[in-house]
Amino acid sequence: LRLANIDGRMALLIGDEAVDVARASGDRFGPEPAVVYDQWDTFREWAADAMDGRCPPGAGPAPATGILGAPSPRPRQVFALALNYRDHARATGFTPPDRPSVFTKFPSSLTGPYGHITLPPGDVDWEVELVVVIGRLARHVAAADGWAHVAGLTVGQDLSERRLQFADPTPQFSLAKSFPGFSPTGPYLVTPDELDDPDDLALGCLVNGEPVQQARTSQLVFGVPELVARLSSILPLLPGDLLFTGTPAGVGGLRNPPRFLQPGDQLTSWVDGIGEMRHQLQAPHPPAVGHDV
Ligand code: ZN
């Protein structure tokens, strides 16, 4: 399945069409994406029938058009991984950890796959990441069953303001990665069965068309099922929760000289088989137009 959040309502993509899930299901599922994740298993069954053209009579496809939002816009928990690609860990001078190093991105930083992101003062860096959306509740799940608790995958950016993140003596990982707009995800949620090998996806990002990161998720230190197992051994993973799986090498702060995002920069982020996000960075206070100063 391929799903999208269109104007805050869950839509199922069938061919070139986007079907509004709530209308097509007679209000059984949705309209909000968060409600769909809470009923993930029964929704999957209904969606499989809908894909076979067995939508309930009278509830034919209602073409959904509008603005694409984050596929899971109201997660109760957002997990993010530090140092989860060997090449990135090496570039930072750390050895890859023997257990996942986890922080959070606060949910108010979430935004959709296209549009403008405001740069706060400081050094804002890019981090393309594969993002997992949890479907079925996970608690003490074995790695072998990890994928069964995943609703799907999407593209994400873990935007980071490096001065605050590495402030001495008070580093602030979670706050530095939670300015408004710092957690874009999208454009679609793709269920793992849609992908040839969900454990080996190419991903990358470009600044003004120039590739700056490119890797494969097979290079993750802790892959998706292992992360579900390790995290769910400590706390429950809830439907709609997000898991930012970490970024590969190529971030701007580790370049020589360092390079950070500037107003006007175009940031393109992609995961093969899922899609592409496009954002334009903008200065905190765009100059007023049409006014004499
Ligand atoms: Zn990250």
Heteromolecules bound: zinc ion
Assembly status: single chain
Q: What is the terminal separation in angstroms?
A: 53 Å
Specify the structural class: alpha+beta
What share of residues are in beta strands?
Answer: 25-35%
In short:
The chain has helices at 21-24, 33-38, 40-51, 86-92, 162-165, 173-176, 224-232, and strands at 2-6, 9-14, 17-20, 68-69, 78-82, 101-104, 110-111, 114-118, 124-125, 128-134, 150-157, 160-161, 183-190, 202-207, 210-216, 242-244, 266-271, 275-282.
Tell me what you see in this structure:
The chain has 293 residues and is of the alpha+beta class. Helices cover 16% and strands 31% of the residues. The chain has helices at residues 21-24, 33-38, 40-51, 86-92, 162-165, 173-176, 224-232, and strands at 2-6, 9-14, 17-20, 68-69, 78-82, 101-104, 110-111, 114-118, 124-125, 128-134, 150-157, 160-161, 183-190, 202-207, 210-216, 242-244, 266-271, 275-282. Strand 17 and strand 18 (275-282) form a beta hairpin. 45% of the residues are buried. The structure holds zinc ion.
Keywords:
binds zinc ion, 293 residues, 7 helices, 5-stranded mixed β-sheet, alpha+beta, 11-stranded mixed β-sheet
Which helices and strands, and how do they pair?
Elements: E1 2-6, E2 9-14, E3 17-20, H1 21-24, H2 33-38, H3 40-51, E4 68-69, E5 78-82, H4 86-92, E6 101-104, E7 110-111, E8 114-118, E9 124-125, E10 128-134, E11 150-157, E12 160-161, H5 162-165, H6 173-176, E13 183-190, E14 202-207, E15 210-216, H7 224-232, E16 242-244, E17 266-271, E18 275-282
Parallel strand pairs: 5-16, 7-13, 8-18
Antiparallel strand pairs: 1-2, 1-4, 1-13, 2-3, 5-6, 9-12, 10-11, 10-16, 11-13, 14-15, 14-17, 17-18
